[in-house]
């Protein structure tokens, strides 16, 4: 019997639920070539949603490109990944290469073959990367017969490439692409938002902003309950709710905890309240060293703010909160919050602060 929950990978049905409104909106915008920024805290399901949509677009006759900037550590790497995706979408590759070569003069793709016989793209080492606008322009130039959708995931990582000049070059090219819909995605919301909303930045007001929210809680609870039931496990609705609550209803963590609870209950096939506690304890035990070194690396002020946040996530800048948790001056708390966000430990969510990893919060409750 297979575990009916999935995490840590891109998911599709039957592990992918909801997001109907988002799918409808994004499809509509991209069909009219309206570029968008899709952002959310980490692990809400951006990549899964977008890859699902790209499959749909492919079926409807679009050419698609998906580049994950997490993997892009140089301009050369960007061009290789970009070519690879274009090659994939324009198969067969012999024809694709001809099409690409028609439009690029300076940076020609070089094909070699991997052990599995699949073509691999490389570049001539002599190629200069000082101006890669002809590469950016490819989707637009190739879009004579079919429209294109180009997705840049983890786009805030563009900062790794001497971000400003790359951003400017990219934006200078993209502004002319009326046959291509672009999607910029990212998780470190602050950085990504800044790139599109700050007047000094190259991509200022370039795309429509769309925040991906959590999945409706009742739908998530039903998902957990249904997937236990489908493998003949008994679970009461209160227990399914409890799993979703502990995971702060973050899709990844709901699936992660539900999966661990399923493993824990595999003998009895019955989920009791203490089954969930056992699963949580196992997860915390596995991450003990990691959590404690994260915590030890913080200043006393930052630690105090985290300890306060584990109990109460709203009203942190009020006098009442400050007194209750014995915090220092407002400016100190503000600095601590900024630092904790920068470290990826907490994130702003609808006006309150949430732990990026709900199990870190659970661990803080044990100290
Ligand atoms: N629509 C969904 N229904 C159910 N679970 C989902 C859904 N979308 C995502 N998940 C869960 O969340 C996990 C993370 O999804 P995904 O990688 O798509 O999110 P992300 O926002 O791109 O994350 P990251 O910030 O790490 O890039 C998945 O492995 C899955 O467990
Ligand atoms: Mg992602």
Explain what this protein looks like in three dimensions.
The protein has 367 residues and is an alpha/beta fold. It has helices at residues 20-31, 46-59, 75-89, 93-103, 133-136, 138-142, 163-174, 189-197, 217-229, 237-246, 251-264, 273-296, 300-311, 319-324, 330-342, 358-364, and strands spanning 36-39, 63-68, 109-113, 119-123, 148-153, 180-186, 208-211, 234-235, 270-271, 346-349, 352-355. It has three domains: 20-211, Rossmann fold, CATH 3.40.50.300; 216-296, Helicase, Ruva Protein, domain 3 (Orthogonal Bundle); 299-367, Arc Repressor Mutant, subunit A (Orthogonal Bundle), CATH 1.10.10. The protein has 16 helices and eleven strands. Strands 2-5-6-1-7 form a five-stranded parallel β-sheet, with helices on both faces. The radius of gyration is 23 Å and the shape is globular. The two termini are 37 Å apart. Residues 6-11, 15-19, 40, 42-48, 187, 251-252, 255 line the site of adenosine-5'-triphosphate.
């Amino acid at each position: 019997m297979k575990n009916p929950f999935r995490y840590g990978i891109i998911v599709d049905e039957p592990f992918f639920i909801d997001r109907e409104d988002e799918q409808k909106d994004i499809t509509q915008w991209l069909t009219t070539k309206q570029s968008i920024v899709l952002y959310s805290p980490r692990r809400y399901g951006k990549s899964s949603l977008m890859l699902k949509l790209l499959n749909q677009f492919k079926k409807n006759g679009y050419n698609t490109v998906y580049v994950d900037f997490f993997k892009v550590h140089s301009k050369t790497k960007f061009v290789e990944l970009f070519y690879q995706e274009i090659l994939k979408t324009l198969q067969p590759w012999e024809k694709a290469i001809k099409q690409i070569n028609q439009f690029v003069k300076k940076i020609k793709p070089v094909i070699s073959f991997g052990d599995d016989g699949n073509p691999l793209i490389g570049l001539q080492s002599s190629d200069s990367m000082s101006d890669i606008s002809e590469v950016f322009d490819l989707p637009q130039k190739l879009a004579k017969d079919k429209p294109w959708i180009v997705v840049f995931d983890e786009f805030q990582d563009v900062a790794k490439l001497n971000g400003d000049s790359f951003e400017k070059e990219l934006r200078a090219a993209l502004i002319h692409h009326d046959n291509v819909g672009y999607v910029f995605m990212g998780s470190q919301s602050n950085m990504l938002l800044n790139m599109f909303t700050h007047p000094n930045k190259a991509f200022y007001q370039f795309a429509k902003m769309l925040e991906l929210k959590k999945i409706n809680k009742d739908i998530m609870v039903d998902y957990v309950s249904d997937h236990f039931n489908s493998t003949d496990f008994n679970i009461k609705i209160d227990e399914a709710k409890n799993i979703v609550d502990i995971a702060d209803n973050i899709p990844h963590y709901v699936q992660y905890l539900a999966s661990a609870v399923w493993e824990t209950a595999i003998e009895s096939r019955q989920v009791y309240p203490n089954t969930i506690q056992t699963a949580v304890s196992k997860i915390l035990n596995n991450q003990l060293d990691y959590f404690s070194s994260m915590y030890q690396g913080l200043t006393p002020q930052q630690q105090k703010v985290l300890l306060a946040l584990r109990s109460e996530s709203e009203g942190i800048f009020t006098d009442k909160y400050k007194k209750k948790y014995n915090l220092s001056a407002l400016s100190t708390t503000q600095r601590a919050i900024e630092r904790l966000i920068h470290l990826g430990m907490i994130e702003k969510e609808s006006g309150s602060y949430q732990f990026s990893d709900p199990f870190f919060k659970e661990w803080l409750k044990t100290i």
